[in-house]
Amino acid sequence: MFAVNDRISTTREYSEAIEDFLKAVYMIQRGQERVPTSALAEMLKISPSSASEMAKKLARAHLVEHEPYRGVRLTQGGRRVALEIIRNHRLLELFLVRTLGYGWDEVHEEAERLEHAVSERLIQRIAEFLGHPRFDPHGDPIPDPTGDIHYRDLIPLAEYSPAHTGRVARLSDQSPEMLRYLAEKGLTVGATVEVLKADPFDGPLTLRVNGNEQVIGVNVAQCVLLAPEPENV
Ligand SMILES: [Zn+2]
Q1: Are 136 and 93 in contact (CB under 8 A)?
Q2: Helix-strand-coil percent breakdown of the chain, rounded to 5?
Q3: Which CATH number is 1-151 given?
Q4: Counting CB atoms within 10 angstroms of each CB, which of 124, 154, 186, 210 has the fewest?
Q5: The whole model's pTM is what?
Q6: Boundaries of CATH 2.30.30.90 in the chain?
Q7: What tens digit of pLDDT does each residue of 64-90 get?
């Protein structure tokens, strides 16, 4: 049933701390040239001095380019490692939801740990088992094995104009509390949403979600990303 991959990584090349650091650079870097080490320290909950130490170490390993006071950016090699970890994470999330009955609000924590532990062979088998999916349970794109990742042009619900209908394509907040709250409002990936009314001065939004009227705050609406045309999410 499974095609066994010839290349089997038995030991991982980099430590968990390095993989997390590269992943954080990738996550923050989107849309900006360089990532300040202070932003990495904050995201990874480490001290600013540990973050700059790590940046220097990874620059010596040619995984990032580091310019003091200007921040870091990924090299081709660093990007490859980051995308491999992100691929592991997103495939694991989908696997846990689809096969073990995990709630979509509880998979992120598990995937944070497992993403560093799975072998290339196991992740390849999981991808095959799931039919090479393109999106994780939160609508985030899954990179392919070569590190190719396809982002869609999505619009935050908070910026959606009234009387337009969209489909929930991605939820940008991964905290279990927020995901449960969104689910209570019917805002899960694939739901149809129409903005009925947007109050001025950052007031609440009145929505029709799968036919039911719901009211949510603007900060909540920032986490919900819509695809204008109904598409296969
Ligand atoms: Zn996650």
Answers
A1: yes
A2: 40, 20, 40
A3: 1.10.10.10
A4: 210
A5: 0.82
A6: 155-227
A7: 999 888 899 999 999 999 999 999 999
